[in-house]
Amino acid sequence: MAVADLSLKEAREKLAAKQDELGKVFAEAKTDDGQYDFKRVTCLGAEVKGSIAVAEKVNQMNAELNELAEHAEKLEGAERAAGEHADREKARRNFPLPGGGKGNYPSTEQRLKALGEMAVETKAFQDWVKNGCPDGITINIDNLAATDMLALAAGFETIGSKALMATTAGFAPESVRQPGFVEGLTRPIQLLDIIPTFQTDQATVKYMEETTRTHAAAEVAEGGAYAESTFVFTEKESPVRKIGDSLPVTDEQLEDVSMMQGYINTRLPFGVRQRLDGQIIVGNGTAPNLRGLKNVVGIQTQAKAADPVPDAFYKAMTKVRLGGRSVPTHHVLHPTDWQGVRLLRTTDGVYIYGSPSEAGPERLWGLPVVQQDADLAGTGYTGSFRPDTVSLHERRGVDVQVGYVGTQFTEGKRTVRADIRVALVWWRPPAFCSVTGL
Questions:
Q1: CA–CA separation, 147 vs 98, rounded Å?
Q2: Fewest CB atoms within 10 A around its CB: which of 23, 32, 108, 426?
Q3: Whole-model pTM?
């Protein structure tokens, strides 16, 4: 029988049988190391032998199973639709709401009355009152159907009750908290991407700097004395510094909130790298601080004075080329200082860096502009950010560790810490120039 002609029951039975049959094949083919060796399969009969034949048969069986499953899903969908149709029919036959329907049911006005009000208005009740209310009384409301009483109950007007059921005095609605969270604002990593980075296995990066280089080469007459050049080397060093952060956390917080371990493992390393990113600019060099570009002895300086900002940076580029004998690669500016450049206009109001409808190039004299706010506005930098002028040496990258501090073990707490050890070396300070007075 074709799959399309099967009933839902037949499709389910055939699907279960074929699923078991395919499961036996995989059980025979599975090796001890979790792989599959199809030449081991014998349950398919003598006519199906060898890896290729078994694989082809497996693919055929799998396709048949997919076809049966798809057919069963369609039939199940049709049965669900039949059930939903029946539920809608039940809703149509439900009791009438107050004020709806006609015929033998009470009028709209009567439906909106409480049961007590309708009893008081009957002739039997009024005659009973006139006779002095002797003994008890039986009142029949012939034109009130049972469904109307239920409808009055749904309208919260049964037996004259007037109490309002609201969320403040009734069943408060449930509010489910949305997944995830709104991240707090923090400074992003801004400068690390332009700093060449290397590994080191030393506690201090030591190097020799040629502090004196005097070339005396000159023309020499026959028999004359040669000129004498002078070269002097000085040992310099940059110690490896450590930047770290930690966070105490309870066992329950780590165990009961599945995302918390990953959250901590990303937040702490980010904070360490963010601090390192800031030290590259503003570190004062006093242990355990790194020495940032702002405090490097020997970098050049260019005052803006009356020049436009782009002119001042071009003059800084020239100083890097001449005084530092290097090729400038980047400009570093505070966002508000770059804002002044981006909003520059000609005398007739045309934006120099492009229309406000465009992002505009973040470049100045052909060099990329890196925006940073680790340092205050008013000072920018131009430099040659190349391996021969500056480099960051990692003794090791960010390391995350968990341990106990003091009495934390008996208190069900742990401390998560993260740190990094690096050395920052400014090989050639004159290859950088600060631009002041922006």
A1: 10
A2: 32
A3: 0.60
